[in-house]
C-alpha cells in the first residue's frame, strides 16, 4: 500500500498535465506529477514549440526572395545551415522545458521522473528512470498521457529515411526532396517548412482535400498559394507502400487513376496521432471507459471511474495544446471541489503555414446548413494599410454572421492570422455582435483593422472597400 498521499496526482507533463498541476496547486492541493520522458510533453519537445522555431527560420528564408524589392541585397540564393538551425531550435526547446521545471518547483509540485501505472483505487506506481520504484496514492488523479504519432502498417514504413513528427527535428541537412504522407495540419505545416528551407516537397493525402476541417474558400486559396510556390499537392491518393529505389524512397499510392508513385530523399509520415495509454492498462482492465482508443469523459473531464479525470490528446477533442491546457484547468477545478465545465464551441484553430490560417466556430458550409439565414462577409488584406506595408496582401478575413448579428464563425488567411483570431474568439465567447465590434476603435495602421472592416462590411458600411463588394463578387 502506498505510503505518501497527495490530493491530486497528474500523469503526464505535457501542456495538459503541467497546467492541471499548476491549477490544482493554486487551489491549495498537495500535487504530484509523473513524467516518463520530458517535461512539456509533445508540445514543447517535438510539437508546437520546435515546429514553430523551425517554421520561424523557414519563414525568414521564405521572405528572402522579396528582399531586393525592399532595397536589401543578399547573395541569392542565401545559404542555409541546418545544423545551426537545429542548435537554435534546441535552445528554444530547452528554455521552454526548463521553464516548466521552474514552474513545478515554484508551485511546490513534486515531480516524479518515471513511468506511472495507475489503478482504480488511485494508487500510483512509478518505475523511476533511476531504476527504483515509487508508490503513492491520491484523492484525485488526472490522466494526461497525451498522444503519439500513428504509424500506419504499410510495408516500408519503418525503413531508412522515413520519419515522423517525433523524429524529423534533427536532420543534418535540408532534404533534397521529401514526400509528406498526410495533408493534415502537421503534414502541411512541415511541408511548408521544408519547402521554404529548400526541399522539393510533395504532399500525398488520402482524402479529397488537404486540411479537411478548414473552410473551403480558405483552403482553396491556400492550396493555390502553396502550389504556385512549387509544393506538389496530391489528394485522393492512399499510400500503400514505401520502398528503396537506389538512393531514393519510392512511395506507391492507389488513386482513382490507378497506381501512382512519388520519389523523394525522405518520407515524412504525418497521417494522424493516437492516444497514448501507456500505464493505463490496469485502469482499462478495471473498466475505464474508452471510445475508439480515447478515454471517454464528460464535460467536467471526469472518466467513469470515481476520482479519475482525463484531459488533452488522450480524450476526444481538438488535438490542440491550448485545448489540453484548458481541459487541465477544468479537471483541476472539479477535482478541488469547484464546478467547471468544458465548452468546445469557441476553440481557435491556428495553422502555421505562410500565409497563416486561423479559424474559430463554424465554416461557411456548416453555418449555411445549420442557419440558412447566415450572412457571410469578407475583407481582403490587399485593402489593409499594414498588410500592404508588410508586403503580405494574399488572403482575407471572412466572418459568418447569425440573424442577431452574432458571429457564428470567423476565418482568416493572411499575415499573423493565428494571433488575430483571438479577437473573434473573445467576441464569440462574450456574445458580442458585429455592431459592438464595429463600434470598437482599432489602432491604425494594424492588421486588426481588417477584422473590424470585415464586420463593417457585414453592416453594409466598409470604409476601405466599396460597399457590398465582396471577394466572391470581384473574382
Ligand atoms: C509537430 C506538431 C506540431 C504541433 N503544433 C501545435 C500547435 O501549433 N498548436 C497546438 O495547439 N497544438 C499543436 N500540436 C498538438 C499538441 O502538441 C498536442 O495537442 C499537445 O501536446 C497535447 O498535450 P497533452 O498534455 O494532452 O499531451 P502530450 O503533450 O503528448 O504530453 C503527454 C505526456 O505524458 C507523458 N506520459 C505518457 N504516459 C505516461 C506515463 N504512463 N507515465 C508518465 N508520463 C507519461 C509523455 O511522455 C508526455 O510527455 C502539435 C503537435 C505536433 C506533433
Layout: helices, strands, pairs:
Layout: E1 4-11, H1 17-26, E2 31-35, H2 41-46, H3 48-64, H4 82-106, E3 110-118, E4 123-128, E5 133-143, E6 147-149, E7 162-164, E8 177-181, H5 185-197, E9 200-204, H6 216-229, E10 232-234, E11 238-245, E12 248-255, E13 258-264, E14 266-269, E15 273-275, H7 281-285, E16 290-291, E17 294-295, E18 308-310, H8 321-335, E19 349-351, E20 356-361, H9 364-370, E21 375-380, H10 385-390, E22 396-401, E23 407-414, H11 417-429, H12 434-438, H13 448-458, H14 471-474
Parallel strand pairs: 1-2, 1-5, 2-3, 5-18, 7-14, 8-9, 8-14, 9-10
Antiparallel strand pairs: 3-4, 4-5, 6-15, 11-12, 12-13, 16-17, 19-20, 20-23, 21-22, 22-23
Helix pairs in contact: 1-8, 3-4, 3-5
The chain binds flavin-adenine dinucleotide.
Q: What class would the helix/strand composition place it in?
A: alpha/beta
Q: Could you report the average pLDDT, rounded to the nearest whole number?
A: 95
Small-molecule binders here are:
flavin-adenine dinucleotide
* Quaternary organisation: single chain
Major β-sheet profile:
5 strands, mixed, barrel
> What is the strand tally?
23
Give unreliable regions as ranges. Answer: 470-475
Alpha plus pi helix count: 14
* Beta-strand fraction estimate: 25-35%
* Fraction of residues in helix: 25-40%
Q: What is the 3D form?
A: globular
Strand line-up of the largest beta sheet: 1-2-3-4-5
Gap from first CA to last CA: 71 Å
Radius of gyration, in Å, reads 24 Å
Amino acid at each position: 500500500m502506498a505510503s505518501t498521499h497527495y490530493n491530486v496526482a497528474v500523469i503526464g507533463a505535457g501542456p495538459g498535465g503541467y497546467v492541471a498541476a499548476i491549477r490544482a496547486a493554486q487551489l491549495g492541493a498537495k500535487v504530484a506529477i509523473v513524467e516518463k520522458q520530458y517535461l512539456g510533453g509533445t508540445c514543447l519537445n517535438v510539437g508546437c514549440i520546435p515546429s514553430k522555431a523551425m517554421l520561424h527560420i523557414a519563414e525568414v528564408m521564405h521572405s528572402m526572395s522579396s528582399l531586393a524589392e525592399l532595397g536589401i541585397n543578399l547573395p541569392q540564393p542565401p545559404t542555409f545551415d541546418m545544423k545551426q538551425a537545429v542548435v537554435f531550435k534546441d535552445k528554444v526547446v530547452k528554455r521552454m522545458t526548463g521553464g516548466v521545471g521552474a514552474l513545478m518547483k515554484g508551485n511546490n509540485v513534486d515531480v516524479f521522473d518515471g513511468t506511472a501505472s495507475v489503478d482504480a483505487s488511485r494508487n500510483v506506481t512509478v518505475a523511476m528512470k533511476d531504476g527504483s520504484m515509487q508508490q503513492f496514492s491520491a484523492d484525485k488523479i488526472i490522466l494526461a498521457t497525451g498522444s503519439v504519432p500513428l504509424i500506419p502498417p504499410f510495408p516500408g514504413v519503418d525503413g531508412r529515411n522515413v520519419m515522423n513528427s517525433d523524429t524529423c527535428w534533427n536532420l543534418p541537412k535540408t532534404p533534397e526532396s521529401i514526400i509528406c504522407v498526410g495533408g493534415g495540419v502537421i503534414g502541411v505545416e512541415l511541408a511548408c517548412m521544408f519547402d521554404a528551407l529548400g526541399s522539393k516537397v510533395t504532399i500525398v493525402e488520402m482524402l479529397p482535400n488537404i486540411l479537411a476541417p478548414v473552410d473551403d474558400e480558405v483552403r482553396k486559396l491556400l492550396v493555390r498559394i502553396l502550389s504556385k510556390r512549387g509544393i506538389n499537392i496530391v489528394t485522393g491518393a492512399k499510400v500503400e507502400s514505401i520502398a528503396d529505389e537506389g538512393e531514393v524512397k519510392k512511395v506507391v499510392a492507389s488513386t482513382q487513376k490507378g497506381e501512382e508513385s512519388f520519389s523523394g530523399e525522405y518520407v515524412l509520415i504525418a497521417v494522424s496521432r493516437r492516444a497514448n495509454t501507456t500505464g493505463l492498462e490496469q485502469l482499462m482492465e478495471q473498466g475505464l471507459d474508452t471510445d475508439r482508443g480515447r478515454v471517454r469523459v464528460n464535460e467536467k473531464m471526469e472518466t467513469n471511474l470515481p476520482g479519475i479525470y482525463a484531459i488533452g490528446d488522450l480524450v476526444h477533442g481538438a488535438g490542440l495544446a491550448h485545448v489540453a491546457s484548458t481541459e487541465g484547468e477544468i479537471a483541476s477545478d472539479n477535482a478541488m471541489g469547484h464546478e467547471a465545465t468544458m465548452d468546445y464551441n469557441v476553440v481557435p484553430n491556428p495553422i502555421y503555414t505562410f500565409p497563416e490560417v486561423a479559424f474559430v466556430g463554424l465554416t461557411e458550409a456548416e453555418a449555411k446548413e445549420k442557419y440558412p439565414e447566415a450572412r457571410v462577409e469578407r475583407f481582403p488584406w490587399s485593402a489593409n494599410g499594414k498588410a500592404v506595408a508588410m508586403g503580405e496582401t494574399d488572403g482575407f478575413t471572412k466572418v459568418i454572421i447569425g440573424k442577431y448579428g452574432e458571429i457564428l464563425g470567423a476565418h482568416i488567411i493572411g499575415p499573423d492570422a493565428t494571433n488575430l483570431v483571438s479577437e473573434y474568439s473573445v467576441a464569440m465567447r462574450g456574445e458580442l455582435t458585429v455592431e459592438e465590434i464595429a463600434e470598437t476603435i482599432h489602432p491604425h495602421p494594424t492588421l486588426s483593422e481588417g477584422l473590424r472592416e470585415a464586420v463593417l462590411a457585414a453592416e453594409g458600411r466598409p470604409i476601405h472597400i466599396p460597399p457590398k463588394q465582396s471577394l466572391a463578387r470581384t473574382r
